[in-house]
Specification:
By secondary structure, the protein is α/β, with parallel strands linked by helices. 38% of the residues lie in helices and 19% in strands. It has seven domains: 3-189, 3-Layer(aba) Sandwich (Rossmann fold); 197-406, P-loop containing nucleotide triphosphate hydrolases (Rossmann fold), CATH 3.40.50; 412-467; 472-597, no CATH class; 598-699, no CATH class; 710-771, no CATH class; 797-900, no CATH class. Residues 252-422 form the Helicase C-terminal domain.
Length: 901
């Protein structure tokens, strides 16, 4: 028997010993006497995998299906596979699963595991859930928008079907709120055996490199607390460089391994905020001296099923398993054998602005409840240890629970689904948490822009067609536009919608950024990303060896296959509606169809490098777009996201003619902006957006922020003076700033949002008028004492193209340019009497000539340097570069691009 088979077999040896069976009779009795039961338990109780089996054995599948919703695809796959193995059946028979564009159910299916989005899709065709006898909403504590909407709809079903049953399954996070929502329904608590966990606060601020074996911090008794390091100034996690974070993680892993007894077992679970940090941390571990002793397993949403399942397999003999995961390992996935948890205290959460129709993916501190969930992972099977990479005071000041998604996400899809179900009084729908009025109003504005609603808030004809697609409203509107007005580009529009429905397929492996960008540039098209997507898709379809194609072009194969699968499913929907799938129409028609759906992201150029939509301004094209170095009058974006600034993603240029074809009203407004005559808002959308903004400002005036003449940052006191407009500016003398910056964190800036800053040194100033948040974020880039003493090539032009006309590089000039890349972002003095310091930046004329120049603004330096670096990569295309040159270019590209995340 193979090792993995032995592992799977051992899991199912004694399923009835799981804690859920201790409460089996109580759960079934409560369900027999009530329509709704809340089951509360910590992770690992077996509720997710065993409750469906218990319900099936109790006869709840006699007259209908047992439905189980999951918030994530990874859980849908793993849960259905687990139950099928336990019952010794194949997935697709008695046990099946269904996700968007993937259905593994059949006529014999009785236990159906599905994503919550699928249940919402089914409820539009069957509002009373007549095919189901019981629905179990799993992971309800996550309070996603879909979960909250499902609970509201199920509440309506319960009023009309007395025999219908609902189980709300929640971790030990605020389960009482579900009971109250369903009329004080019973809560059945499942207790699980837990082992003591030693809690150690070990902030990243102390990490100065790998500690030697034996450098383990002093421990308190299990269950105790320890706070090492300096006290923070705010309740947010310390803002540190990625290198410091990885150094700290490696030092803890090293300590854990060196302090173990020879026969001691136990795996390590590291929580990080996203895919990029997980990959970089894994690389650091692979490159470390202890790599041979580790079995490193990443876990994040984009991984394929086979890769995700590796977290459940034991490490090879003689190795310790290290799982590096996002927050999906908090509650959605139970990994046995974990004895050490290393918690960064961070996660990435989406926040949506209903006034500007823009989203922000923010790396943010997790709640106390999430911190404790992570801690609990270390004590499931034996005593363990949890290292928190943030101070205890930071934990104590965190919110108890994560903000519910309904308060921080775009509600347009939910409002569209409500309209589809005949609900028109959107504001009065019985959500478990009432959404803000601004969120509903913003959703209505978007749907009106898309022509999805009639004046009485019912679906328009266009809206009815849009509802056929399991997509975001803007993406379904693209397809409907092609069906109704541009049928010759239906295929192309489906491809575009498929690309926008998934993660980006572009892969930038650490250390291979140069090769990756060169590979991606091969697909560039003057008409922007949406045409580049068509080129990538066609090349992928034509490739005989798709795995090799993706590896060669630095594309994620799983994402490309997902794009292909989505396009195929969308074609079926369109064909079933009676529209033939045509292709080969003009690019103008294609961009018209795409832009009609993305009308909220159609923008006009305000000034060089900055654009404005109907509701947002100061938008820049993201460096990941093929249009980054271009400056068209009008663009359409697949999304507008705020990270460090407002960025347009997936961008194509638009002409005035296309703009008029999309919408005369939008054309008029944006043409005025492009012509420098923005004037006052005239569209209904703009007026409502401004009105909502005015209400918020008025509310702010009722309770004005109290400013003092000083501010404390990083244990130092700094003066405040009047800055640009009505904003205050923090004076940061360099010597005191260097003392404070080791203690500075992102939360310090967030607590004083809107403050500006200026660094002062010897009569000179740096970053005057930039945001304090920006200054704090780049604090580790700054070394004025060193930089101001360094010479840099101030008046030198580097002509890197071979003048012989051979199309190659001038080796000498190219080599000298690459050697001088280390000067980029060096702080430098200007010539003459000017007292404003700036950053050495890389510039190019686009014809093979490069030079260095001082840019006083941080973002100007950043944008010019990364654009010039992209041009340098293009110039080197087809040339075999020395390893050192690749490393220098890659290091700088990685440093600059990190600021755009």
């Amino acid at each position: 028997m193979e090792q993995n088979d032995r592992f799977v077999y051992s899991i199912f040896m004694h399923p009835h010993e799981l804690p859920v069976y201790q409460q089996k009779d109580k759960i079934l009795t409560a369900l027999a006497e009530n329509q709704v039961v809340v089951v509360e338990s910590p992770t690992g109780s077996g509720k997710t995998t065993q409750l469906p089996i218990i319900l099936h054995e109790a006869g709840y599948a006699t007259n209908g299906l047992i439905g189980v919703t999951q918030p994530r695809r990874i859980a849908t796959l793993s849960v259905s596979d687990f139950i099928a193995r336990q019952l010794e059946v194949k997935v697709g028979g008695l046990v099946g699963y269904k996700m968007r564009f993937e259905d593994k159910t059949g006529v014999d299916t009785k236990i159906k595991i599905m994503t919550d989005g699928i249940l919402l899709q089914e409820m539009k065709l069957d509002p009373y859930m007549s095919r189901y006898q019981v629905i179990m909403v799993d992971e309800a504590h996550e309070r996603s928008l879909n979960i909250d909407f499902i609970l509201g709809l199920l509440k309506q079903v319960l009023e009309t079907r007395a025999e219908f049953k609902v189980i709300v399954s929640s971790a030990t996070i605020n389960a009482q709120v579900f009971s109250e929502y369903f009329g004080e329904c019973p809560i059945v608590k499942i207790e699980t055996q837990t082992y003591p966990v030693t809690l150690i606060y070990d902030p990243v601020i102390e990490a100065q490199g790998l500690e030697k074996p034996g450098g383990k911090p002093k421990e308190e008794p299990r269950g105790g607390n320890r706070n090492s390091g300096r006290k923070p100034e705010s309740s947010s996690p310390l803002r540190y460089s990625d290198e410091a974070l990885y150094d700290k993680i490696l030092s803890i892993i090293q300590r854990s391994l060196s302090s173990r007894a020879e026969d001691e077992e136990g795996d390590i679970l590291v929580f990080l905020p996203g895919e990029k940090t997980i990959k970089e941390c894994a690389m650091r571990l692979y490159q470390s001296p202890m790599a041979e002793a580790l079995h490193i397993v990443p876990l994040y949403a984009r991984l394929g099923k086979d890769e995700q399942e590796k977290v459940f397999h034991p490490a090879p003999l003689g190795k310790s398993k290290v799982v590096i995961a996002t927050n999906i390992a908090e509650t959605s996935v139970t990994i046995d054998g974990i004895t050490v948890v290393i918690d960064s205290g961070l996660a990435k959460l989406n926040y949506y602005n209903p006034r500007s129709f823009t989203a922000s993916l923010i790396e943010t501190p997790i709640s106390k409840a999430s911190c404790n969930q992570r801690k609990g992972r270390a004590g499931r099977t034996r005593p363990g240890t949890c290292y928190r990479l943030y101070p205890r005071k930071d934990f104590e000041n965190r919110p108890l629970f994560t903000t519910e998604e309904i308060y921080r996400t775009d509600l347009s899809e939910v409002v569209l689904r409500m309209a589809e179900l005949g609900i028109s009084n959107f504001e009065e729908f019985d959500f478990i948490s009432k959404p803000p009025k601004s969120g509903i109003a913003g959703a209505i504005d978007i749907l009106n822009l898309l022509d999805a609603l009639s004046e009485d808030r019912r679906l328009s004809k266009t809206g009815e067609l849009m509802c056929a697609f399991p997509l975001l409203p803007r993406l379904s509107r693209m397809i409907v536009e092609s069906m109704l007005r541009y049928p010759e580009v239906i295929h192309e529009t489906l491809v575009a919608a498929s690309f926008l429905s998934t993660m980006s397929p572009y892969v930038l492996p650490p250390g291979e950024e140069l090769e990756a960008r060169k590979a991606h540039h091969a697909f560039r098209d003057p008409m922007g990303d949406f045409v580049s997507y068509l080129r990538i898709y066609d090349a992928f379809i034509a490739a005989a060896d798709k795995t090799r194609f993706c590896e060669h072009n630095y594309l994620d194969e799983r994402t490309m296959r997902e794009i292909l699968r989505i396009r195929e499913q969308l074609e079926i929907i369109v064909s079933d509606m009676g529209f033939p799938i045509s292709r080969g129409g003009s690019l103008a028609d294609y961009l018209c169809a795409v832009s009609r759906g993305l009308i909220q992201f159609v923008c006009a150029r305000q000034e060089r490098g900055l654009f404005r939509s109907l509701t947002a301004e100061k938008i820049q094209i993201h460096p990941g777009s093929v249009m980054f170095r271009e400056n068209p009058d009008f663009i359409v974006a697949g999304e507008i996201v705020r990270t460090t600034r407002m960025y347009a993603m997936s961008v194509s240029p638009l002409s005035r003619e296309i703009l008029r074809r999309i919408s005369p009203m939008v054309a008029e407004r944006l043409s005025a902006i492009s012509g420098g005559q923005a004037g006052r808002a005239t569209s209904a959308v703009e007026r409502r957006a401004k009105a909502r903004g005015g209400e918020e400002k008025a509310a702010g005036r009722q309770a004005p922020r109290s400013f003092t003449d000083t501010i404390q940052l990083g244990g130092q006191i700094f003066d405040l003076v009047k800055g640009r407009g009505k904003k205050k500016m923090v004076l940061l003398p360099w010597e005191r700033f260097t003392v404070a910056r080791d203690n500075l964190d992102q939360g310090s800036a967030a607590a004083f949002k809107g403050l500006l800053a200026v660094i002062q040194q010897g009569g000179y100033s740096l970053l005057e008028g930039d945001k304090l948040e920006t200054v704090i974020r780049i604090k580790d880039w700054l070394d004025l004492d060193r930089d101001l003493q360094r010479e840099w090539p101030r008046s030198r032009n580097f002509e890197i193209l071979d003048k012989g006309g051979n199309g190659g590089l001038d080796a000498r000039n190219f080599g000298e340019l690459v050697e001088n890349l280390s000067h980029v972002f060096q702080v430098a003095k200007p010539k003459g009497k000017d007292k404003k310091l700036g950053f050495v930046s890389l510039y190019t004329d686009g014809e093979g000539v490069f030079w260095f120049r001082i840019s006083k603004g941080f973002h100007t330096a950043l944008n010019e340097s990364i654009a010039s670096l992209e041009a340098l990569i293009d110039a080197a295309d087809g040339v075999e570069l020395a390893a050192e040159a690749k490393e220098r270019i890659g290091d700088l590209y990685r440093k600059l691009s990190s600021f755009f995340e």
